[in-house]
Design a protein that fits this description.
With about 150 residues, the chain is an alpha/beta fold. The protein contains four helices and seven strands. The protein has a four-stranded parallel sheet.
Length: about 150
């Protein structure tokens, strides 16, 4: 449902470089998500990449909050961000996140990247939607609280 509303995918360089080999050769028979990831325009935030190797990719340059704001206005629909924790941290700090879609799995992995770094300013969100699945995974959708 989240991807159905999305007309663009916004990725940081690291996630783009991980997703490209994983998704670019998949078909709908392999994974129902393959057409979304392969056919949707991917906007890549990177100060080092100069050209995309995955079809429908556009390198938009280093992180610039004004460029992200313009992109949000240009794309006729939602922008989907997956992974890209450095990008998400910057977008949260700049107030550019319209909605968080979190999946909570019933296991612990120890240390790892945090959604919000220790240095992040306080932000308030409100629960917009929730769903639980038979495999004990919880889906939580939060929106910024004004």
């Amino acid at each position: 449902a989240v991807t159905e509303r999305s007309k663009g995918i916004l990725l940081g360089r690291t996630t783009y470089e991980m997703f490209e080999p994983a998704w670019s050769t998949r078909t709908v028979e392999d994974d129902p998500g393959a057409p979304f990831f392969n056919d949707t325009t991917k906007y890549v935030v990177s100060g080092t990449l100069t050209e995309g190797t995955w079809r429908n990719s556009e390198i938009i340059g280093a992180y610039d909050p004004d460029r992200i704001r313009r992109l949000k206005d240009e794309v006729d629909g939602d922008l989907y961000v997956s992974g890209s924790i450095t990008l998400v941290h910057a977008m949260l700090a700049d107030g550019l996140v319209d909605s968080l879609h979190l999946f909570v799995y019933p296991l612990t992995l120890g240390e790892g990247p945090r959604l919000c770094p220790d240095t992040a300013a306080a932000a308030k969100f409100e629960l917009a939607n929730t769903e639980s699945y038979p495999n004990q995974v919880l889906y939580l959708n939060y929106r910024p609280k004004n």
